[in-house]
Amino acid sequence: MGKIKRQITHLQQTRVKRLNNGKIRCNGSISQRVLIKNSPENLKFVELEEVHNLDNLREFHLDIVTNAMRERNWGSKIERLFAITIFIVLTLSGIKRKDISNIMSKLGTLTYQTAEEHCFKLVNGEEETILSDNRGKYHRYSIFEDKPELKEHLYNFTVDKVSQKNSEISIEILQKEAELFIESNKRTPIEQTIKSEQEDEKKSKYSISYKAIQNLLFSWGFYWSHNKARPFVNGHEREDVVAYRETFIDYFANNLSKYWMFLKTATGEYKWSIPKLNIARIVISHDESTARSGDTQSFKWLHAFFSPMFNKGRGISRMISDFIVCHPLMTTFSLSETEWTKATKEFPDLLDKTDLNFTPKTATSIITPGKESYFDNDAVLAQFNRLMTLFRFCEIMKSVNYRIDILVDNATTHTKALSDVSMFGKTPGSACSIKQLKWLENGIERSIECFDVEGMSKGLFVLYKELGIFDKNTRTSDILLADLRIKASTHPAFMKRTKLEELVNEHNKKYKMDAKIVHTPKFHVELNPIEMYWAQIKNFFRKINDQSNNGELMEQRLIESKKIYEKSDVNDKLWGRFFRIVIDYKAGLSYAAILKKYFKAGDEIKSHRKATNNIKLI
Fold first, then answer.
1. What percent of the chain has pLDDT over 70?
2. Can you tell me the distance from the alpha carbon of 555 to that of 351, in angstroms, rounded to the nearest whole number?
3. Which helix or strand (DSSP H or E) is residue 528 part of?
4. What is the pLDDT of residues 21-65, one digit of tens each?
5. What's the pTM?
6. CA gap 390, 344 in Å, rounded
7. Which CATH number fits domain 239-296+316-415+500-613: 3.90.870.10, 3.30.420.10, 3.10.180.10, 3.40.109.10?
8. Which residues does residue 261 pair with via DSSP β-bridges, in sequence order?
9. Where are the alpha helices (DSSP H) in 478-550?
10. Cα atoms in the Cβ-side hemisphere of radius 13 Å centred on 215
11. Quick check: 325 and 282 in contact, CB under 8 A?
12. In sequence order, what are the residues at sequence separation of 6 or more whose Cβ sits closer than 8 angstroms to the Cβ of residue 304?
């Protein structure tokens, strides 16, 4: 060991530096070929001039080199040169013999002893014996060298299997698939006779071992890991979902000039665009979420003696329902002190304590979830009734003449129908929970009673006759209930209307407002900015939470987290990203492309929900 060190130092005057970050940089000389790192996937030897110089040897990582070695497609000559290079670098770095041996073993190249022997030959000028073929590490023939079509087949087979949701893929299955492929692609007897003896020798050495398949998978970028949650796409490209998504995108994309938008200007700065007030509309996003007292930061500074004990379990829960606003002067919906005074003077019941535990000046509700306390449809209706009442006293809403779009998702709490064909039976006297049907026809409001003068339900069949859908001579036995319900879905009287939409329409008529409920497409949380708001609120909450099971204290900290959000610029970024996503969808980008562009799906995160903790402008 000492001898070779002295010889190399004396003959080549090599200088080696170990960097603090664990990388190794070498300057000096070693061989006609040196290792160059062009990219993490591409390691290769580059020919230099006759002068043995290592000035071009770049920084490299052991794990990158290991991945490159897994391909096992290098010839024995290149592999020997690589092993000698690594051996000299590690030796001159002062690494112990045992550690060098372990590293060489991990790389799967020459052993320590063989690399040392070749190094002596190189120092003594016996380069020809090292560079000549049939010397050094034994190279086993691989079937993939002679049958590239097998490698391509296995790659396509693996990609197809991995793309499926089940786990029907393993190295054993790939081994069997390789054998079946070889068996089905055997050469004809005539072709067998004209093969050279060298090819026959290679065939006798063919080996499709477990390790060979494993290395092949590694070289393609596959890895064995926990089957954790990844960006989900279940239903995103379903025909009906895509159709509604296009309608949703068109609604906003065709009216961009009506909204306040936080976008990049010609100078490269991000600013709010201001629409004309006579056409302007304000967008509000609504949703509910749950926080738990047991939630804490994933990482924090700890000490063996001074850090407190950690509470096991998720602790108590609080559900919070809130509204965020797309406007430069308002983040979450709230009245000013003056506006709140006017509102409570006209509607004193706004000060009453209810089960929904409303925060003063807002429609924000924080409740304790349970069997008898939950954000069901009745709770949501009560909250929106309060919201619509507060709108009347909000100067910002008044400035746009109450033209407001309220985004809500497709949860059943938001979509409970006012009337539905499933609520009707077929014949008179059957169960019916609707007393009267109301609908608009050519701008005129119409209605029909669902019960006769004796208090008996009419049933769908009789209603159809009264509405003129069926001829009066049609008999009950001529049509089935299922067919009746399908037929009903095409008539305005049975068009699905939600209770939430009806509530908003009542306020619109009564107070001459122009608010509208806009349901976001199913499965598309990226089109509802408040989903990202919850990620921010919970992140702030975890930082100030001490896992206390005091409910009032937990609610105070949720309100504190909300105030931190209101002071930040995150709301601007959320709405800016919303409109950029709308524009990109309109330009033809798919859901997968949107996820990759704005949430880096597949690179840094496993779910687009987790990307919201660090929002960046694009």
1. 69
2. 18
3. none
4. 333 333 333 333 333 333 333 333 333 333 333 333 333 444 444
5. 0.59
6. 10
7. 3.30.420.10
8. 273
9. 481-488, 499-511, 530-544
10. 16
11. yes
12. none
